[in-house]
Amino acid sequence: MKYIDEFRDGQLAQKLAADIRREARSDRAYGLMEFCGGHTHAIFRYGVQGLLPDNINMIHGPGCPVCVLPIGRVDSAIELAYRPNVILCTYGDMLRVPGSNRVSLLKAKAGGADVRMIYSSADALKIAQENPDKQVVFFAIGFETTTPPTAVAILQAATMDLANFSVFSNHVLTPAAISAIMGSGEARVDGVVGPAHVSTVIGSRPYELFAEQYHMPVVIAGFEPLDVMQAILMLVRQLNEGRAEVENEFSRAVTRDGNLKAQAMVAEVFELRKTFEWRGLGWVPDSGLQIREKYVAYDAEKRFELPYQSVADHPACECSAIIRGVKKPLDCKVFGTVCTPDNPIGSCMVSSEGACAAYYTYGRYKESR
Amino acid sequence: MTKPRTGYIRPLDLKNGQVDMTHGSGGRAMAQLIEELFLTAFDNEYLRQMNDQASFQIPAGRMVMATDSHVVSPLFFPGGDIGCLSVHGTINDVAMAGAVPLYLSASFILEEGFPLADLARIVESMANASRQAGVPIVTGDTKVVERNKGDGVFITTTGVGIVPHGVNISGDLARPGDAIIVSGTVGDHGVAILSVRENLSFGTSIQSDTAALHGLVAAMVAAVPGIHVLRDPTRGGLATTLNEIARQSGVGMMLRETNLPIRTEVRAACEFLGLDPLYSANEGKLVVICRQEDADALLEAMRTHPLGQDAALIGEVIEDDHHFVQMETAFGGRRIVDWLTGEQLPRIC
Question: What does the sequence similarity comment in the record state about its family (chain A) (predicted)?
């Protein structure tokens, strides 16, 4: 496949691996955080870690939209789904994330709640049009990549004057999360592999501030394995040279300013929340988006007066520490025993982009030897 | 083909009519549906006897029996429909024992309001598939459920067949050192279905690979009677099937990604949706495991059959206490090809 195979060339990978081995200094360690779950997935799926020298440690960050949603928000969605006359629509992976008492939307569906898996926000709009006697709620999650489609759905609903459609917004912001991790100083991160799809929307400019503030090199990379390896090489070079700049490996899709049209639509519909709870990161100021007053008619939190209650993770679950880059999946006592992809305790085991699911799916043979 | 009896005042309205509760009530309307639609389409000497069962002589030997329920959405898809699929699926389940399929049964659960024209189309497709395969549908059943209690039509088919002497094929017979072969490109059916799923339609020329594989199996068994394992990788795709066999046989497997036959269109569609073709369903492909020294003869026999032209050696069985299926990636790394968890879902972002 053109534009895909070029980024999965085994020979090029070997050459890049040799370059990284040559340039990585043996007298120091490199802790590199890939923020995005897409990168985590690529690293495991293609065995990238196995091609790197031992002193390059990839730290899996919080960039999986399913993983970072706190239990309280999942509980709210489940509660909403059980209300009479409500159809709750959401993306597939969200269905399996356990809330309190390990009840998930999938279990709620089996219990009689009307929960629909959708592939895009437009599907939720269509369901609302087809079910005028029901309240259709789109359980919206995700980073800057999935926010513009949600904004479009709300704008379209407003244009159509659709009275039975609303959005339960859980959209969150990448730079705020990266800052929270850097600010905590818990994880030993020397450089960041910057998000791919998120950066196509927000551009590379937002990372400049914390590259400067934390003296942290950032290389924005695509999701193909060679993209990731090239970014690792670029980070190693920056670190060796004492630089801390934002570089763009993914220049075929990302510009400095990003997608201005998408940003404008998001700004029209959403505004910053003062604070938002993340799984792992706790309450992070200015890190989430809520629907503006102008579109309050489409805000499910207001329409259904959804209360929010913070809920602690399962005591044995280490998702929080894993999301912060402090622990690895194998440090969790329930990993692969009580907690498996078929029966997840924590969110990191649910999404294919979660660190635990990636470890379980692609990495456990290596660890078992 | 027999002509329908003329004992009914009006013939079934196969153009504009709908299934209603009387079609499952056991009364005259049901008899008419059976006679004018099912018997006419499936016509054979066993059905013509109009008994509640089919009675036939069985040849001596080991008999196999398989049953499969079909709940496909949408009912019609590029390259096939639930009708031919329900015939092919059960023939293949029987054939995967190395058996010669002999007879099929078909049971229909119809939803009130289902258009008779669609039902006729499905039944005709089943009849064609059965005729082409030379495996008659000799008995059946029809039930009707109320509107909104079904999904249009569900079909359960059961098949019986006879295993030739000297053939012993089973999922627990894979041995370290054995060769793993697939009969052709993988993932076609799953992508064809996805391409016409409501809310997910995308332009592609991919057709379902639905096909009856017993002819191919007969050629394979003739060439290499000592085949160890045969299985058709349907739901869950090749990856899930290999994991099943690995666990059943207590072995591991090592695949080579560069050897896997996957259509470019299937790879592209899966790439676009964030899916893996190894987990995408197939309905006309088989995976076979045999001794390494038999692999060339088997591949040659397979490639001379139309349904095995793209047969490829994709890996080998290895010793592994964990029973992992692994793959050497085209990228030079190695990874586990795990069981499918839940359903494969398109990525969020």
Answer: Belongs to the HypD family.
